[in-house]
C-alpha cells in the first residue's frame, strides 16, 4: 500500500472524504431570498475598503445585463456591489498581482485569477474603480481588493454605456466572461 512521507513521519493515504456543504439562506434586498451552498460563498478576509467587517459574499451574474455581475454580502441584505470585467471598461487594463496578494489568495497560478472592477453610479453617470480591483481565486473561493499605488488608473473611470439617454441601462458587451490572468 503506498504511503506519503511528511517530514520523517509515514502517513498512510487517507480515503477520499466527500465534502458535504451546508445549504444557507441569504436574504437580500436586491435579489430576495437566495439559497446557496456554503461552498459557493467567497471569503474576503480583509473585507473591502470601507466595508472591512463584511467578509462573506456570493458572486452572482446579473439576470438582465450581460457582463454585469454582483458581489452580494452573505450577511448584510442591502450590501451588494456591481462588478464588471476590466475589458468592458478599458481595453488596456493591466495589473500585477504582488506575491503577498497571491499568497493571501492561495493562488499558485496567476492565470487562474478572476479580476473585476467595482461599478459606481455618480452624478456624471456610471464609473468603475480601476485603482481598487477585486481579485478572486475561484478554486479556493478567496477574494481580495487590491489597492494599486500607481496613478495610472483613476478611482472613477467613466464607463461607456453605449447609450445616449441617461435612464437607459448600460449596454455591456454581450457574452464576455470574467477576466482570467490577462488583466
Mean pLDDT over all positions: 81
Distance between the termini: 45 Å
Radius of gyration: 19 Å
Write down the CATH class.
Mainly Beta
Unreliable residue stretches? 1-15, 163-183
| Count of beta strands | 13
Order of helices and strands: EEEEEEEEHEEEEE
Q: Percentage of helical residues?
A: under 10%
Q: What is the CATH architecture term?
A: Roll
Main beta sheet strand tally, sense and closure: 9 strands, antiparallel
Task: Describe the secondary-structure layout.
Elements: E1 4-6, E2 9-11, E3 23-28, E4 32-37, E5 42-43, E6 56-61, E7 68-73, E8 80-84, H1 99-104, E9 114-122, E10 125-137, E11 142-145, E12 157-158, E13 179-180
Antiparallel strand pairs: 1-2, 3-4, 5-6, 6-7, 7-8, 8-9, 9-10, 9-13, 10-11, 10-12
Which features would summarize this protein structure in a list?
single chain, disordered N terminus, globular, BH3618-like, 13 strands, disordered C terminus, two-stranded antiparallel sheet, 183 residues, mainly beta
Describe the structure.
This protein is mostly beta strands. It has one helix at residues 99-104, and strands spanning 4-6, 9-11, 23-28, 32-37, 42-43, 56-61, 68-73, 80-84, 114-122, 125-137, 142-145, 157-158, 179-180. The strands form three sheets. Strands 5, 6, 7, 8, 9, 10, 11, 12 and 13 form a nine-stranded antiparallel sheet that branches. Strands 1-2 form a two-stranded antiparallel ribbon. Strands 3-4 form a two-stranded antiparallel ribbon. It starts with a strand and ends with a strand. The model is unreliable at 1-15 and 163-183 (pLDDT under 50).
